[in-house]
Every structure is written in C-alpha cells, then in structure tokens.
Amino acid sequence: MASAGINVLRYSALFAGVSYGLYHQSNLNAQNHKAKVDRDFAHQASLITQAKAEFKKKNMPQGSVTKGGEVISDPNDPKFDLEGYLTALMGEKAK
C-alpha cells in the first residue's frame, strides 16, 4: 500500500487535471458560441443588404431605369426621372 503522502499527491494531480479540463472545455465552448454569434450576425447583415437592394429595385420608377438596370442620368431624355436619379445617387453615396 502507498503511503498517505503519495495518495495525497495522486489525488491532487487528479483534481488539478479535472479542473484544467473543465476550464479548457468552457473556454472552447465560449469561443464556439462567439463564432456562432458572429456568423449569425454576418448572415443577418447580408440579408439586410440584399433586402435593401431588392426594395430599391422594386420601388424605383420603371421609366427611369434602362434595360441594363442603370438609372437614366441625362436630363434631356424624355424618360428622365429626377426623383429616381437622386434616390440612386443617395444610394451610391451611402455605400
């Protein structure tokens, strides 16, 4: 049988190992949770950006947009829409 001093040392090492394992596991879980929150936030931001682009495309007057999707910026064009042009200009400045 081992002496009492050796048993105390063994159980102290066991306790230290289990404590470190719990600490390390909690750090890994915290990092994983933070990464998941960051991914979710980035996904929501991309959805918002996509929704803004669709809203802008949907609410743009049809007469002020060419077939390529560009806004008519020539004021002499009969289909020129000042409100559509200014909206597109403000959208570009916001980016």
Radius of gyration: 31 Å
Query: Could you list the spans in which at least 5 consecutive residues all have pLDDT below 50?
Result: none
DSSP, total strands: 0
Described by its quaternary structure, the protein is single chain
Instruction: List the secondary-structure elements in sequence, H or E.
Output: HH
Spatial separation of the terminal alpha carbons? 76 Å
> Quick one: overall form?
rod-shaped
What's the overall average pLDDT, rounded? 85
Q: Count of helices?
A: 2
Helical residue percent band = over 70%
Largest sheet: none
Give the helix/strand class.
mainly alpha
Estimate what percentage of residues fall within beta strands: under 5%
Structure summary:
The protein is mainly alpha-helical. The chain has helices at residues 4-59, 82-94. It is built from 2 helices and no strands.
Keywords:
95 residues; mainly alpha; rod-shaped
Fold blueprint:
Layout: H1 4-59, H2 82-94
Describe the structure.
With 95 residues, the chain is an all-alpha fold. Helices cover 73% and strands 0% of the residues. The longest helix has 56 residues, at 4-59. The protein is rod-shaped and about 100 Å long.
